[in-house]
Design a protein that fits this description.
Elements lengths: L1 E8 L12 E2 L14 E9 L4 E5 L9 H19 L4 E2 L1 H8 L8 E6 L5 E5 L3 E7 L8 E4 L2 E4 L1 H7 L2 H6 L1 H10 L3 H11 L2 H14 L3 H15 L6 H15 L12 H13 L4 H16 L1
Parallel strand pairs: 2-4, 6-8
Antiparallel strand pairs: 1-3, 3-4, 5-6, 7-8, 9-10
Helix pairs in contact: 2-3, 3-6, 7-8, 8-9, 10-11
């Protein structure tokens, strides 16, 4: 469906909301005088229940360029009008937006406490599927270009296993963008996501250039995931020393006289979500190994 609407052609790029029917209109004018205003006729395609987007009258039927160019701006305003502030894009889509991938998905997954658990069809075989789910905690949400998304750390903690296989380049980029691993660790601990921690541990350690960070996170995450029925502590300490050696340090031991401090530091990290004591403990052991 389409209708004619009079739009003023002015030398700016702008978004317009016209009347009761919301019309998203983006125009770029290259060669207009500053005081010029030229009335032109636009074709306005109807999207869904009063939502419209303009396209050139000469565009052939089935042309999708205009739709894809306006998709994310439309999605932000459309979801805001339906759910107010009570919505958030899925973890997978949030992560992709964080790394700058704005490819239009065939189906945009949205979390909303008042979601309808059904798809809303949109032009060119796209759709929005709003799932009735509680939102992540406030500190795990942010916005990108008007889109409500999970923070990078929360998206990494909640993303699907399939994303690791299908989009490895984007996952590595996301891990490289993570400025504070403690944010990710907090999301993993609070959600009890041991399997996710296992998947991320390998990817995170492979992407982390600083050996000291690999030592701390590698040891802690392995013990936290606890993959074996027995022997996890010994294997964790062995892997820790492999990473110690890769950083150019001497082999480091958890000695009998520091065992209680080691266990207490691990408990602080696992139970109380405070990795600082464990970091200080390992730093002290590394310093002691240098003096041997």
């Amino acid at each position: 469906m389409w209708r004619e609407a009079v739009i003023l052609w002015v030398p700016v790029r702008a978004w317009y909301l016209r009347g009761a029917a919301r019309v998203l209109c983006q125009r770029k004018v290259d060669d207009c005088a500053a005081d010029a205003s030229v009335a032109v006729l636009e074709r306005v395609d109807r999207l869904e229940k009063g939502w419209y987007i303009p396209s050139r009258p000469e565009e052939p039927a089935g042309e999708n360029t205009t739709w894809y160019a306006a998709f994310w701006a439309f999605a932000a305003q459309y979801l805001e009008s339906r759910f107010g502030e009570e919505w958030c894009l899925s973890a997978d889509q949030s992560l992709l937006l964080h790394v700058g991938d704005r490819t239009v998905p065939s189906q945009l997954l949205v979390r909303a406490p008042k979601g309808g658990n059904k798809p809303t069809p949109l032009p060119h075989d796209t759709s929005v599927f709003d799932v009735r789910l509680e939102l992540p905690a406030g500190e795990e949400r942010t916005t990108i270009g008007g889109l409500r998304v999970m923070t990078l750390a929360a998206a990494l903690a909640h993303c699907s296993p399939d994303l690791f296989r299908a989009r490895p380049v984007e996952l590595r980029a996301a891990l490289a963008m993570l400025t504070d691993a403690a944010d990710l660790l907090r999301c993993l601990l609070e959600g009890g996501k041991s399997k996710v921690a296992g998947r991320l541990a390998g990817a995170l350690l492979a992407a982390e250039p600083e050996p000291a960070v690999r030592v701390v996170l590698g040891q802690f995450l392995f013990v936290y995931v606890h993959p074996y029925f027995d022997g996890n502590g010994c294997m964790g300490r062995f892997l820790m020393n492999l990473m110690v050696a890769s950083g150019g340090w001497r082999w480091t031991l958890v000695t009998l006289d520091t065992r209680n401090a080691y266990r207490s530091a691990l408990e602080q990290a696992s139970v109380h979500r405070d990795i600082a004591p464990f970091t200080r403990y390992l730093a002290a052991r590394l310093a002691a190994s240098v003096q041997l």
